[in-house]
Amino acid sequence: MRQQGWTPPSGVNYLALGLGFVVVEQAFEMALALRQRAYLRRDKLPGRLEDQVRAIDDDAAAAAPAAAPAAQEMARDEGDQDKEKSSSSSSSNNNNNKASLLEQLRSKFHKSQTYNLDKNTLSFVNMGYGMAVSAAMLLSGFNVWLWTQSEAVAQSAFGLEPASSELVVGSLFLLAQSVVGAVISMPLTIYSTFWVEAEHGFNRTTPSLFVADTLKSLAVENVIVLPLMAGIVKLVRWGGERFWLYVWGLLVGFSMVMITVYPNFIMPLFNEYKPLPDGELKSEIEKLAARLEFPLTKLYEVDGSKRSSHSNAYLYGFLRDKRIVLYDTLIKNEEEPALACTTEEVVSILAHELGHWSMSHTVKGFLLQNVVYLVAFRLFGLFLHDPDMYKSFGFVDQPVVIGLNLFSYIMAPLGTVLSIAVNAVTRKFEYEADAFAVNLGKADGLKSGLAKISIANLASFDHDPLYHAVHHSHPSLLDRLRAMDCAVEEMTHDVKKVK
Ligand SMILES: [Zn+2]
Fold first, then answer.
1. Which residues surround ligand 1, an ion (CB under 5 A)?
2. How many CB atoms lie within 10 A of CB 423?
3. Is residue 149 part of a domain?
4. Is residue 312 in some structural domain?
5. Residue 286 structural domain
6. Is 361 known to sit in a ligand binding site?
7. Which of 193, 262, 334, 441 is deepest in the core (most CB within 10 A)?
8. Distance 114 CA to ligand 1 centre (A)
9. d(CA 493, CA 229)
């Protein structure tokens, strides 16, 4: 469909360009997923990961004198019987309840490969479906149709002339677009949640919770996006040549407000945040925070288990008002108590998180994000008044909302390159935060804590390097364990030098 009075573009055909980008990007993603698939089909754990995890078991055994002889022997034995998934050691696990991590890893490896292979298959369906939907929408002129409908509603319901009501028409358009987007992605989200995740024992979301979540997310998204978009449209119309600078200012202000609004008002709509009960864990965390002069004001436990048994921990907050949130799934693991983190492990994981704070990773990330906004809107300024961009997609008018929408197709490759760069930076931050925890003497707790989380979450233990570089914001478990060994070595080396 095309707007009335449409004429073909005189220069570049951005529609063809946008379509080309969609195809090239999906082909690239599919090639990567195919490479990763080969690793997920392997039936043997990487030997170096086994060595690392065996070393964690050895350290734990050495640190616990009473249980040491039995546990140490057990860990050694396993090293020799590579292929045998021995049943003998599981009985000794029960005896001292401190199951060998290597044993856990081996017993979960096959499950993890199947789980990640299923997710990989789903990603192909997702990519194929996404490509088909995008192509159909672009070729049919769906956005032109949706815009025309929004104009008709503005006219019939509010008696507004389309030409003088860009804000109302734009809002109706975005509202409809978010609903259409949710409907289109629904079948695959349902399949992922209620089949893939459920089959592998992670899903805890009930159908009614799923419906409530979907409606709430849609409502929240629109309550936030519509006023923001209205602000952007106003500034673009008012700001003239330099509009991109004003819009950028608005976005910086907006993201600063969201730092407070999001965790305090939006996340509680979806989860329950309870203060962490008094006890050893709480006092150990408070001790660590005090040692680092971290201005901890609240310590929460969140019911992550309401939706999924995947586990996590994070911190947030402004200046002198910081909060720490622990997923209940990190502390408790009813199905597999051996994979629940101990107090020392949770504290070590938080030492890593506090490393992010201490080295200003969040602030750096925030600055980086705002540089990206600035560049994006500066570039948008180059396309805003280009009639060919609008004509290519079937438009005659040049509404700001549509301009931004079409611009996103043209900028897609830049977005991909940028996300690869952001992942690389994030991985570097992860290594730095690990080293920070190591320097606080938390190497052992962090190593075993991370191993437990990876095993419990059925992380993929083997990666195609290219797939990993593009998709993962965190280094692999093996890489982190090895880097921590280096950090420990460096630290002992430094200590010796000082002596
Ligand atoms: Zn981290």
1. 430, 433
2. 17
3. no
4. yes
5. 273-340
6. no
7. 193
8. 26
9. 55
- Tell the residue number behind the tokens 């201005």, with chain if given: 295
pLDDT of residue 499: 62
Mean pLDDT of the chain: 89
- In the predicted structure, residue 474 carries a pLDDT above the cut 90: yes
In angstroms, the CA 332 to CA 309 distance is: 10
Type of residue numbered 458: L
Question: What confidence tens digit (pLDDT) does each residue in 352-381 have?
Answer: 999 999 999 989 999 999 999 999 999 999
Reading the block at residue 7, the tokens are 């004429």
Instruction: For residues 354 and 436, give the distance between their C-alpha atoms in angstroms, rounded to a whole number.
Output: 9
> CATH no. for residue 304?
3.30.2010.10
Does the residue 292 lie in any domain? yes
Would you tell me how many other CB atoms lie within 10 Å of the CB of residue 240? 8
Q: What is the pLDDT of residue 498?
A: 67
Q: Is 58 a catalytic residue?
A: no
Rounded average pLDDT over 383-390 = 95
Distance, CA 479 to ligand 1 centroid (Å)? 14
**Is 324 a member of any domain?**
yes
Total domains, the chain: 1
- Average pLDDT of span 97-124: 90
The token pair at 450 is 């991370």
- 310 is known to lie in a ligand binding site: no
Catalytic position from the list 345, 353, 462, 479: 353
pLDDT tops 50 at residue 69 = no
* Token pair recorded at residue 164: 């003088």
Q: How far is the CA of 138 from the centre of ligand 1 (A)?
A: 39
Fill in the amino acid letter for 326.
L
Catalytic residue flag (residue 353): yes
Residue 352 in marked binding region? yes
Catalytic residue among 151, 197, 434, 479: 434
